[in-house]
Amino acid sequence: MSAITPARIKTILSAALGAVVFVWLGLPLPLLMGPMMGCLVFALAGMKMQDLGALGILFRTFLGVLIGSNVTPELLQSLPTHWPTLLAIPLYILAIGAIGFPFLHKVMGFDPVTSYYAALPGGLQDMVLFGEAGGGDVRAMSLIHATRIVVILTLVPFVMTFVLDLELTRPPGVRAIDTPLRDILLFIFAGVAGWKIAERVGMVGASLLGPLILTAALELSGIVTSRPPVEMIWIAQLSIGMAIGTKYSGITAKELREDVVAGFLFSLLLAALSVVFILVILQFKSGLDLNIWLSFLPGGQAEMAMIAILAGADVGFVVAHHVLRLFTVILFAPVVMRLFKK
């Protein structure tokens, strides 16, 4: 498990301070946004920070457990009815790439490989790994993707809370004291075993999808009959927030001026494109608007799933769209890059 280092202690203290400030000010998603902003502010101020490593990944598996616990027979039966919006995901990815690549390459001046993998809305780690293999700038790609997630994740809760007047306070579970100990142990087992099995078989997003699948199997089989305790969800939020904020540790003035500014401008462009795309879809798709909005906003998969849970949206609907986006990018990004190089 991850060693305790001064940088990790600073990360935890910064996250705790951010959470306290957000709770005190009554801001939305205090246990997610507070740690993210706390770590971000101190990292930009020059404090050396470090994520929680394997322990942080373990904590994030709790989100997969929560999503998996929402998988019911009724949800599985409803998935085929979502095909119109699921088919829109590849078009959405193409639109992002068609706008993002020339913006980052021609306007912001990044090399083609860096621009390509920084523009695609896939998982941060996966896009950075692909870009590194292709000779791209690892630090630039990481900062651009991290900035995309920060900007989208900052805009969404505030718009939902203060513009759309939606509450992001839906209780995601009951307290641990009111949850059967047997089920708590099974949830922890599903998180760890699901993560490690998915990692062993090379599954994309192993720490989220592995626990999701294993927990869903436990729920559908009737082995567990309760929902994960709320404390697990609090820990998952804190961990996700810290992981995003610490991406800016050790940032230089040049990286801030070039990479972060590029990521910020690209995020605004991406947000505008997403809004247009969503408004077009809403003209043809009936159903709850909130589900469509959360399915087509290009934040991180885990972060958007968390917001969907706390907003009371259809978690299965939202997660299905983000998983399809992630897998589509992962599967086809290297193929398109090879064709592009030729």
Structure description:
The chain is mainly alpha-helical and 342 residues long. The protein has one domain (64-230, 252-341). Helix content is 74%, strand content 0%. The protein contains 15 helices and no strands. The protein has helices at 6-25, 30-44, 54-69, 73-78, 83-107, 112-119, 124-133, 138-163, 181-200, 206-220, 230-245, 253-282, 289-296, 301-311, 315-341. Helix 3 packs across helix 9, helix 3 (54-69) packs parallel to helix 10 and helix 5 (83-107) crosses helix 15. The N and C termini lie far apart (44 Å). The mean pLDDT is 84.
Keywords:
mainly alpha, 342 residues, 15 helices, 0% strand
Show unreliable segments: none
Mean pLDDT: 84
Q: What class do helices, strands and sheet pairing give?
A: mainly alpha
- The helix/strand series, from N terminus to C terminus, equals HHHHHHHHHHHHHHH
Number of strands: 0
Q: Percent of residues in beta strands?
A: under 5%
Q: How many domains? A: 1
- Count helical runs: 15
Outline type = globular
Radius of gyration: 19 Å
Amino-to-carboxy terminus distance: 44 Å
